[in-house]
Amino acid sequence: MVDRVTPRCTDKERKYVADTWGIKDQCPVVAEPFIQWVLEDNFSDGRPPWELVGVQVVKDVDSYELMKLRLLNGGHSAMGYLGYLAGYTYIHEVVNDPTINKYIRVLMHEEVIPLLPKVPGVDFEEYTASVLERFSNPAIQDTVARICLMGSGKMPKYVLPSIYEQLRKPDGKYRLLAVCVAGWFRYLTGVDMDGKPFEIEDPMAPILKAAAVKGGKDPHELLNIEVLFSPEIRENKAFVAQLTHSLETVYDKGPLAAVNEILDQV
C-alpha cells in the first residue's frame, strides 16, 4: 500500500524544473512531504531490509489498504463533489471550510471507522485528523476537479462499500454517506450551482450525465445503472428516501446547506 498525494502536473511545474535544474521534463512528478509504504512480509526467499528506509513491513497489508481506501480516498471523494459544487478550486480551500471539515470528521467517526478492522498501532481518529491536515496544505495546489474525475471507478471502491455494510446492520448509519452520493449525483449533471456547464472526466460520462439530467432530484435514474449499483442499495426504501431528501436539498439550497442539515441531526 502506497500513500502520497501527487497533484496533476501543470506548466508551472514544468517551468520550475526547467528553470531550477535545466531539465525539460514534460511530466515531472510533484508530491506532498508525506509518504507511506506498507509491504506485506510474504516473500519466497528473503528480502531487502526495507525498514531501514522507512517502509512498514507487516503481516497483513489488507487492513492498511482498507483504512486508506475508506478514510483517505473516501474522504477525498466526499469533499471533492461537495466542494466543487460549493465553488472551491483547490482541496485545501475545501478542507478549510468549517462546514465540510466538520462533515468529514463526523462522517468518518460515525459511519466509516466503526466498520474498519483494527490496524496495529493505528488510531483511526488520529489518522483522519492527519489526512485532513495533509489535505489542508496550500503548497500542494491539488485541484478539486482532479479529485472529482473518474467517479464511476472511485465511488464504488471508496464510498459505496461503507454504505452496503451499513445497510446490512440492523442499526446501520448512512445519512452522512448519502450526502456524499447526493453531491456526486448533482455534480454529474455537468452544471454547477450557478448554471455554468463543466466537463465531466469519466469513461462513463455520457451515460452518467444523461441519467443525472433526466433524473434531476430523483436518484432512481442513476441508481438503476446496474454496473454501479446493486439491487441491495436501490431497493432499500429507507436509504433511497434519505438520498432523495439530500439530493433535493443540494439542488434547492446548495451543498453546504445539505451538509449542515444532516450535521444538525447527528
Automatic annotation (TrEMBL):
It catalyses: D-mannitol + NAD(+) = D-fructose + NADH + H(+). InterPro entries: 6-PGluconate_DH-like_C_sf (IPR008927), 6PGD_dom2 (IPR013328), Mannitol_DH/Oxidoreductase (IPR050988), Mannitol_DH_C (IPR013118), Mannitol_DH_N (IPR013131), NAD(P)-bd_dom_sf (IPR036291). Pfam families: Mannitol_dh (PF01232), Mannitol_dh_C (PF08125). SUPFAM superfamilies: 6-phosphogluconate dehydrogenase C-terminal domain-like, NAD(P)-binding Rossmann-fold domains. One of its GO terms (molecular function) is mannitol dehydrogenase activity. Keywords: NAD, Oxidoreductase. Residues 1-51 form the Mannitol dehydrogenase N-terminal domain. Gene3D superfamilies: N-(1-d-carboxylethyl)-l-norvaline Dehydrogenase, domain 2, NAD(P)-binding Rossmann-like Domain. Residues 60-250 form the Mannitol dehydrogenase C-terminal domain. Its EC number is 1.1.1.67. Belongs to the mannitol dehydrogenase family. This is mannitol 2-dehydrogenase. It comes from Saccharomyces cerevisiae x Saccharomyces kudriavzevii (strain VIN7).
